[in-house]
Every structure is written in structure tokens, then in C-alpha cells.
Amino acid sequence: MELTDLHAIADAERAGRRPIQVRVCSAEGCLSSNSRAVRQRLEDATVRAGLEDRVQVCEVGCLRLCSEGPLVRVEPEGSLYQQVTPEQADSIIGTLTGGTTDARRGDPGGAFFARQHSIVLENCGVVEPERIESYLAAGGYQPLHHSLREMSPSEVVDSITRSGLRGRGGAGYPTGLKWATVAKMPPGQKFVVCNADEGDPGAFMDRSVLESDPHRVLEGMAIAAYAVGADRGYIYVRGEYKLAIRRLGIAIRQARALGLLGSGIFDSPFNFRIDLRIGAGAFVCGEETALMASIQGQRGIPCPRPPYPAQAGLWGHPTLLNNVETFANVPAIIRDGDAWFARLGTEGSKGTKVFALAGNVRHSGLVEVPMGMTVREIVEEIGGGAPDGRAIKAVQTGGPSGGCIPAEHLDTPIDYESLIRLGSIMGSGGMVVMDENVNMVGVARYFMEFCKDESCGKCIPCRAGTVQMHRLLERIGAGEGNRADLARLEGLCDVVKHTSLCGLGQAAPNPVLSTLRFFRHEYESRLRGDSPAPEESRSVNAARA
User: Fold this and answer.
1) What are 435-457's pLDDT values in tens digits?
2) N or C end of the chain, less CB within 10 A?
3) How far is residue 337's CA from residue 333's CA, in Å, rounded to a whole number?
4) How far apart are CA 474 and CA 441, in angstroms?
5) What domains are there in the chain, each with its CATH number?
6) SS in 3 state form for 407-420?
7) CA-atom Rg of the chain in angstroms
8) pTM (predicted TM-score)
9) Burial state string for 123-140 with b = 16 or more CB within 10 A and e = fewer than 16
């Protein structure tokens, strides 16, 4: 396939579109709220109104405002309908000929969308995820063609390096440096792996990208493979993501059929094959060495480093491992230039970051903002603050490996270093809002329960330490603890953090440490026994669901 062939398919796709598009969200959140029945009724209503030649009803990916699903967006007028029921379909179609509807119309230009800057999510809610023609019409696979025909592998690596892109999986390691390390390894078998084992409670960023724009991830992986000299790739995706797995499988087959994956891509010497590997729900398999062990058919447990995956990864071969969001940034950087990307964000944290905003917040959903925006701007301006006029008490970032940022620090900018100074981390992008009614000891207890259940058990500090910490948190939370228990808890945090084998154990104490740092009075009030232990946070229960 050549660039002219891509253009021909894209032009035919655009020419076949009808003047009005009625886009129905078909991401998992809206599907669970009956959006497929909404789409069917909209199609039927279009036929009854005799508008088949003017109106096209299509399933798109995530429309982001997840708390208001099912969502329907009408283009080009830009109307966004929220919480749509099948019974409202006829009246929505009727508005196209001057009628009225009782469907709730949101403001697509309102605060939730106005402050966002879309790079990773630019195609979400626009392209049809199960049709490669839709992705090609949005310019898809042209960055891959440009990389193969206009750039050398080293130039691609240099471009990613200059962009300042850092890994979006949590640690924030410079992406260009990782790519360069793999590229410099001796010629031979190399692998590219996409970590889609998103397991943080309350996080759904990677799932939404895979469900909404799977070809973008495939293209990013192919560009990376060309840059580092790999010809095999794996996407390791958690088994709970049934829709994402199905759409990835469809996308891979479509790309192979058009010669965009496989042998001689764009009639070049570059070959690249991608296969799926399905995880079994183990949180520890998000750790890179455990993930690779699982791909190889072994038990998913971490192993010591060095050697690092870039030196000896899958089956002992150099392996490049990035997460979904990192790869999804790559086509845009090649298309628009590394200087463009580097102008976004802060000095040390370039570009944008996708967050799954959830918990005690009025507008939950997918948010993509430039690095450097403050936590307050995201939670209060984009998310609308806590419902019913309640005050925000804390915002938890980074999942079980992160910490709780108190209300007095909500003006902290979102970048890697600033969050670490507060005892939290960026993580993959989960952001759970907690209001004034939340019990912070209960929050710490919940995340410690998660960590002890998900520990692989290989090393004693994590296997035994998380169990002991959880028992102490239960005692303190029930008002049965004493100051010796609190001192023992702090000591265990130090031991587990500094002696565990992998990142799960090393970061497991973070929610405890951050709540002790900023909400110590809540622990001490339980010790004194002068207040009852309230129920666990609604935010935490929402995250668990």
C-alpha cells in the first residue's frame, strides 16, 4: 500500500458521509447504560422520517462526560444529548426538521470541555472504532508512512526525545531515552510491548482509548518498532476489558488486511506483527517484569533488575515497553512535530495528560489537559466540584501507589515532580475526588486491602507487611488502636517501602503515609475513641465498583 492508496480510502470515506452525523457513544460505560438500544431506535427513527440520505447514525468511541451517559452528539451543529433513553430517539431526530425534544441537551462548549486540550483523545467520539476507513479519514497511518519514507529510525528516536514525552504509565521515565537504549542494542530479535493492564481502582483511561481509537495505539507501536528495530509486538490487556479486546482484535485484522501490519509495510523493508495477550486480572502484572513473565506463559511475578527490559526482556531479547497513552501520543508527535508537543506543558513535564475523573465530583469522565494545570482547575472548573455544595476534602491520584492531596494543596500543578513532593504520583491517571464526609483512615484501609490482596507473595516485606498494616488500620479505624499501633504502622510503612522487591510493595504505603501526613488528626481521634468510625468513603466505594 502507498500513501495514494490511503488517501483514496480516506477520500471515499469522507465522500460517503451524509451531511448530518448522529454519533452514539459505544464505549463500555454508555453501552452498560443501553446506548446500543438508543442507536437502534435512532436508526429506525431516521428511516421513519425519510432522512436516510441526509442523516447517518454511527457508533463512536467515548464522548468523555461519562457520568451523563448514554451520550449522543449531533454534528455539525454540535448538540450533545445526555442520559438519552430509547424513547427519546424519535424526538431527537425530529429536531433535525424543526421539531422539539425533551432529551436533556448539554453544553459541548461548557466548562467540562472548554479547558481540555485533546491529543490522545482527539479521535475519541469522532472515529468509528470498528472501521479502519474512519481512522484513515482522520489522517490515520499517515504518520507511520512519513516515518518509514521520510525519516531514519534514529531520526524518529531523536524526535521523540526532543518532544520531551515521558512515560504515561506512572514513573514518567523519558520515552526517548528508553527508545534510544533499545535502538542501540545489537541487531537481532527485539520486541515492542504495550502495557494495557490498567488496574488502578477508579482508572479507565487506557480502556477508553482502546475502545475508542484502537488503530492509534497500533500505529504508535509500529512507529516505535521501526525506530528501535523490532519486528514483533504484544499488547498485554487485562481480561476484564472485553470490549477493548474485541476492538483491538478487529483493528489488528483490518490493519493486516490493508498491509499496514505484517510484511513489507508501505512497500518498505519494515515488517511488524502485533499479537494480543490477555491477562487474568492480576494487578502485579502491570509491573513490567511480571507482565513479561506472563506473556511468556509463566506466573506473573516480578524479578530483580538489572538487567532491564531494554537490555534483556521477552525471552532474553531487548524489549521496549510503554503503556497505552504513551504510544497514543506518538502519531501526533510525528504528524505535528516534536517542537509543537514540547511547547505544551511545563519545563519538566511536556504535553498533556489524560485523567479518569471520578468520585465525589459533579461531572466525572475522561479529561485531557496540558501538564501544569492545577488539581483545583481540574476538579472544580472541569469537574464542577463536589455535588450538593459539599467541600472537597482530598483528591487521590496514582491509585494504590499514590497519595491523597488535601484541600489546602489543590493549587498544586499537575506534573511529575510536584506530585511526588506531596507524597503522591501521577500514576496512569486515576483521579478520585473525596468530599468532606470521607473518612481518611477508611481510605487508607481500603487501598491497603487492595495491595495485600494483589501482592504476588514473592517477597516477605510486601506479602507480610501489607497484611500487618491492614490489620493495624482496621484496629485504628474501629477505635481499638493505641499510640503503639500508630508507631508500629509508621515503622511498617518504612520497612515495606524500602525493602520490597517491586513497585507494588514499594509504593503500597503511599496512601497511608499521605493520610498520616495531612490527616493525622483523624488517626489520633480514633485512638482517643472520642468519635465513631464512620462508614468508608462513597468515593472509595465508587472506585471499587
Assistant:
1) 999 999 999 999 999 999 999 99
2) C
3) 5
4) 9
5) 17-108 (3.40.30.10), 139-342 (3.40.50.11540), 352-435 (3.10.20.600), 444-544 (1.20.1440.230)
6) HHHCCCECCHHHHH
7) 24
8) 0.94
9) bbbbbbbebbbbbbbbeb
